[in-house]
Amino acid sequence: MEKRVLFRSSWLPWALLLPQLVIVGIFFFWPASQAVLQSVQMEDAFGMSREFVGLENFQRLWDDSSYLDSFKITALFSVLVAGVGIALALVLAIFADRITRGAMVYKTLLIMPYAVAPVIAGVLWMFIFSPSIGVLAYGLGRLGYTWNHLMNDNQAMTLIVIASVWKQISYNFLFFLAGLQSIPKSLIEAASIDGAGPWRRFWSIQLPLLSPTTFFLLVINIVYAFFDTFGIVDATTHGGPGQSTSILVYKVYLDGFKALDLGGSAAQSVILMFIVIALTVVQFRYVEKKVQY
Q1: In angstroms, rounded to a whole number, what is the distance separating the alpha carbons of residues 182 and 267?
Q2: DSSP characters for 32-44?
Q3: Taking a C-beta distance cutoff of 8 angstroms, is the pair 249, 272 a contact?
């Protein structure tokens, strides 16, 4: 029978939820409501005067070609970060799950990048790929390939994808490793006795049982690519060259703090918030149907 917790008083559940509700209200709903209010106003750079303009800020964004281009940039960037990061983490978790000697050292080295701040991760990879002093840039030059992410759009996108994936891969690795270790070994042994090879065992047993973990990481990585990569982009490319790596969250910063267009920046943040909410709803509405719990 299903066990249920019964509260004798009606106020106790709300008292237990109160700290979390206060935190969510202060740090999410209040800033979100302020952004929505600011998005329908025209405000001077110092915040001294405001004028209600309705949807004019959103209309200007619709007519701004650079803002529309940032949608394509963000879509490509988020797909690459989520796809590459999840795939690499799964491969590393499979190898870590099979290692018997020195496994703790291997796992510790893979977890370490998660302790690095996004800005530090961006600076680290910027130096590695620096056209003048970067080790990898020098190695690529010796192989006949000129690397200069300050001038090449594709190379700049590659740089921020590598830095973002490296920063997030530890998080993905931990969940995949935990998921692999929770799979009963008896299932793998039974499939092996039946003659199934390593690839067949992974495709037919391990991967379907990892679908809840994969779905969870897909949602987390999409949100990470949209929001938490701001520090990496700012430290490596500053949205350049031109605006080829100016993802949506960085465009909010450029227009709000650089161009001092506070109303337009608020409108962009509102659009970004609704995009992420819509993507999350779509993933839970349609992608979750393929998850095997």
Answers
A1: 45
A2: HHHHHHHHTEEE-
A3: yes
Q: Considering only CA atoms, which of 77, 23, 28, 44 is closest in space to residue 251?
A: 77
Residue 126 phi/psi, 5° resolution? -65, -40
For helices 211-223 and 262-285, angle between their N-to-C axes, nearest 10 degrees: 170
> 283-292: long-range contacts at Cβ-Cβ below 8 A with a sequence spacing of 24 or more?
283/215, 283/218, 283/219, 283/222, 284/219, 287/215, 287/218, 288/215, 290/211, 291/211, 291/212, 291/214, 291/215, 292/208, 292/209, 292/211, 292/212
- Show the tokens assigned to 40: 């329908």
Given a contact cutoff of 8 angstroms between Cβ atoms, the answer to whether 230 and 224 are in contact is no
Q: Which residue has the tokens 């490319």?
A: 237
pLDDT score of 3 more than 70:
no
From the number of C-beta atoms within 10 Å of its C-beta (0-12, 13-18, 19+), residue 225 rates as: buried
pTM, to two decimals:
0.86
| CA–CA separation, 141 and 154 (whole Å) | 17
CA distance 39 to 31: 12
- Residue in this structure with the two tokens 């949807």, named with its chain if needed: 55
Paired tokens of 213: 């973990």
Give the whole-angstrom CA distance, residue 68 versus residue 54. 21
Share of the chain above pLDDT 90, in %: 38
Query: Would strands 50-52 and 41-43 be described as parallel, antiparallel, or unpaired?
Result: antiparallel
pLDDT 10s digits, 195-251: 877 788 888 888 888 888 888 899 899 989 998 899 999 999 999 888 899 999 999
